[in-house]
């Protein structure tokens, strides 16, 4: 089935949905009623071999313990049995666990998804889902430098780290941060992070988070 009637490229319906999910920043694997992988989005492909693999056409975790839990969750969804959980963290080497959540498609949605039964949505906690700096400037009237500071605050950078990265004083960065809070109508970093995270959904520009400090 072509998506949106594009006969030249013959994009399938699932490929089309995969591209939409990617554009919104959601890494997804679409799965059929018997557990078969029907489509892996481009963002989800980036996790294959590093948290996830596809074995014999089905989804599996690279870590044995995580895979045991994953197969139990998938089995509950496939069989229709009472589900104990819908999400888990898939352990990875020297990285935070990859978060996976199963979202079941309702019966009226399945025909749209070529009779797929559920979607595995992936969240990488090592990637910061930044909204576009230009978007922040347009919405809140931030300067280019203030937008940069806002995104750094969102991803957990300290004022000291920002000062070192940009070659300015901590006092200058603090002044810029105060302007960000004032223009966004927030008082705490947690509030700012909440707003910017929601905006990231409509302006997907992720970047890897800074390495965890020991």
From TrEMBL:
Gene3D superfamilies: Winged helix-like DNA-binding domain superfamily/Winged helix DNA-binding domain. GO terms for biological process: regulation of DNA-templated transcription. Keywords: DNA-binding. GO terms for molecular function: DNA binding. Coiled coil: none annotated. Residues 139-196 form the HTH luxR-type domain. This is DNA-binding CsgD family transcriptional regulator. It comes from Microvirga subterranea.
